Amino acid sequence: xxxxxxxxxxxxxxxxxxxxxxxxxxxxxxxxxxxxxxxxxxxxxxxxxxxxxxxxxxxxxxxxxxxxxxxxxxxxxxxxxxxxxxxxxxxxxxxxxxxxxxxxxxxxxxxxxxxxxxxxxxxxxxxxxxxxxxxxxxxxx
Length: 141
Known about the structure:
Layout: H1 3-23, E1 29-38, E2 41-52, E3 56-60, E4 66-71, E5 83-90, E6 97-106, E7 111-119, E8 127-137
Parallel strand pairs: 4-8
Antiparallel strand pairs: 1-6, 2-3, 2-5, 3-4, 5-8, 6-7
């Protein structure tokens, strides 16, 4: 093979590789969800604080059963694994409502928004809008 043909072959291979690299893109989504408890009955409940996913918190019984999904914009990580007493409005009691707003942004610039509001007793999970929290014990067990 001549030097000219070899150079042409290498050039074509580089062009094909560049074109294929330009076609492979990574799609990203950014999702933000805001949950709010409206009204509801003011209650005080004791339990253990556990993590729920990346950002949420659960109040569980000593046996590990779910009591409430806590709704708060505060960082509660210092209470994780501890027995706590929380005060707040329970959406599953009284005239409580759970309002959820979700916003999803894609890399293409497309934004999707959704809003859902339902009666607390009809929600899939029991929500508690947190007003205060205090540690009762450093351990749940």
